[in-house]
Design brief:
two-stranded antiparallel ribbon, 8 helices, 4 strands
Length: about 150
Amino acid sequence: KRFFEELDRDGDGQVTLEDLEIAMRKRRLPRRYARDFLRCTRSNFFSKSIGWKQFLSLMEQKEPTILRAYTTLCLSKSGTLHKNQILTSLKSAGLPANEDNASAMLRYLNSDSEGSISYGHFRNFMLLLPSERLEDDPRYVCGILLG
């Protein structure tokens, strides 16, 4: 629920297209993803915002795929993703594995002060991706963050 509240900038219980566009811009995601997100979650064609119930419904649909993607990454024993695991994951995905790329992923996925990515941070980022772009293969996410 906290992520929904972060998206809802004015705290009125509704997330608008503008709220979503700002969230996308902060995460360097294409602006069109905001329209896709709203289109997939709104209760009817004419609705200009979404509430908690619509958001929760979308989250429940995407959660299994997001969890699968997260667990395919090289996680630490604590279940978080650290810079060295990011480097390993990048190498195994055939993507450029260097310190700059690993740092970029940590930064864009909103890592904690310890320099690791929790499932919650990963999930919140992945929720913003359109369903058709959300794949079981985490290389897609790496490509977005590095591209």
